[in-house]
Specification:
By secondary structure, this protein is mostly helical. It is built from six helices and no strands. The longest helix has 26 residues. The protein is globular.
Amino acid sequence: MLAPALFFVLRLYNLDYTAGERMLGAFPLWVIVIDYVLGAVMWTLIGRFGMGIFLPETSTFFFMRFFVRATDPLLKLFAPITPGFLIRPIVPLYVAWFFFMIRFYLMPWLLGYSVMGMLSFPLESEFAHGIAYLFGDLLK
C-alpha cells in the first residue's frame, strides 16, 4: 500500500529510507498487512465521525457517501455490543475504539511481545517517518 509506493519514490530519487526498511524487516509481512488493514478500517471510521460533524449521513458529498458505504457493515456488525445511550453520530468513533484496542493491545500480546506498544501502529509510524523525511529539510 503506502510502503511500496513510498519506497519506490525514494529509490527513484536515490533517497535512503532506512527507518521504514527496519520496521518492515522487524515484523513479518503478514503482521504489517493486518495492521494496515485494521488501521485503514479504524481511520475510515474516524473519518466518518469527523465528516458526520459537518454533514448528515444522507449527504450527496462523495467522501461522505464513501465513508457511509464503507462503514455501515461494520456498524451493523457491532450493533449488538453498541450501547443504546450513544447518539448515532458517535457510534463510528465507538467502533473505531475497538480497532484501536486490537491494534495497540491484542496484536502485540498475541505475537508474544511483553512490552505494550512495541508493535503499535506501524502504519502511522511509517507515514510519520515519511512525512518527516520528505519535509524535514523544509522545516530546518
